[in-house]
Amino acid sequence: MVPIFVFAILLNLASLAILGTGAWLGWSWYAGDLVQTPTGVERIREDWRLWASLGLLAFSVFGRALVLPLLARRDAGPVPDLRREGVNLPVVDGASLYVEKIGSGPGPMLLFTHGWGLDSTVWNDARQALKNEHAILSWDLPGLGRSKSAGPQGVSLEAFAANLRHLVLGTGRPVILIGHSIGGMTIQTLARDHPELFGREVVGVVLLNTTDINPLRTMIWSPLFQALRIPVLIPLMWLVIVLEPLAWLSAWQSYLSGMAHLAQRMGFGPEVTRAQLDLVARLATRNRPGVQARGNLAMFEWDARDALSRLPIPTLVIGGQRDIVTKPEAGRCIAASVPGARFEEVRKANHMGFLEQGDIYTSEIRRFAQSLRSDPRVTGS
Q: Contact at 8 Å (CB) between 81 and 284?
C-alpha cells in the first residue's frame, strides 16, 4: 500500500515534530529569560509556553483517544484482534509461517491471504461468518504477524508464492484461494510460476482489491508516483530499511498520537468504524517498517499480467468503487482477461472495503464457493 505507507512516514515525522515542539516549549519555559530589573537579575517565564508544552506532549501520548472518534464512526460491536490456536510451520528457504485452521464443511477449503502491512487477524469476521460452512486456512505472510521470513530475500512476491504453494499442497484437499491486495498478487504470482496447481489443487480464485501489475501503475496519481519511483520512493524505502529501529519508534509514537490513524484512514470509505481503523493502524505499526519497505520495493518490479488467463478457472474479482491503492479498473482488467470470470464493484468501498463492508464481501465469497460445489470443473462430473 505504497501511497498510504508514504503518507504514514510523513505523518510520523509530523508527529515527531509535535513532540519535539512540545519538549522545546517546556525547556524554553523552564529556562525563561534573564531580565535586568531594579532589584537585580530575574528569570521571567511565560506561562503560555508551559501550557502549550503540556498540551502538545499530552497529544503526543494520548492523541489517539481524540483523533479516532473524529475519523471513524462508533462501533456497532467490537472487532477483536483475535489469535486462535495456530501453529508455526517451517517451510520454504527457512521461513516460518504462522497458520490458523478453523471450521468444517463439505467442498473446497478456503485459504485466505491478507494484504501488505497487515496479518491474518483481519479475516476474523469472514472466518466467523464462514466457519460453519467451510474449512478455513489463514496465514501471516513472511515477515509479518507471527511469520518469519527467510531473510531479505524472503520478502518478495516469488517467495510468498512459493510459501503459498507449500500451504496448498499441504491441505490435502481442493482449495479456493482468496487474497486481498498483495494477497491477490501472491495468488497471481503462484499462477504464473506454478500453473500446474490450478485446476487440480486450486479449484477457484477470489481476488479482492488487487492488481496484476506494479501497483504504482494502478493507483491514484499514478503518473506522479511512477515519476517519483527512482528519485524519491526507492531511496525512501531504503532509508526506512537502514534506519528501521528509529522508523519503528517513530511509528509507535505516531500511533499513540493518532497520526497513524490519519494515514490509514486514507484506505477506508465513509463507513469505517473506530475498531476497524484502530486495528489496521495497530497492525501497520506493529509490523516491522523495514519489512514493509522491502515488500514495497518488491512490488515496484512485479508483473503477472495474464497469469490467470492461461488457466481457465472459476474466478471472482471484487473491487472498491473508491479504491485509491488499486483502482477498480485494475480488477476489471483482470476479470476481462480470465474466461468466465466475474467482476463485482462495491459502492463506496475503498482499499480496505473487505473490513468496512465485510458483509458484502463475505456474501460474495460465500456465493462463489457455493457455486463451485456444482461446477463440473471442480466435481469432475
A: no
CA dihedral 35, 36, 39, 40 (to 10 degrees): 90
User: Taking the model in full, what pTM does it have?
Assistant: 0.93
Helices 289-300/244-257 angle, 10° precision: 110
pLDDT at residue 380 in the model: 47
Per-residue cell: 169: 499442497
Backbone phi and psi for residue 104, each to the nearest 5 degrees, phi listed first: -160, 165
C-beta neighbour count of 51 within 10 angstroms = 12
The sign one gets for the Cα dihedral 74, 344, 284, 128 is positive
- Calculate the CA 295 to chain-centre distance: 11
For residue 330, give the C-alpha cell. Answer: 485494475
Mean pLDDT check: name the lowest of 3-17, 76-90, 348-362: 76-90
Domain boundaries, the chain: 87-218+298-374
Select from 304, 302, 353, 344 the least CA-distant residue to 325: 353
Fold designation for 87-218+298-374 = Rossmann fold (3.40.50)
The Cα-based distances of 218 to 91, 294, 378 in angstroms read 32, 20, 32
Find the largest Cα–Cα distance for the chain.
104
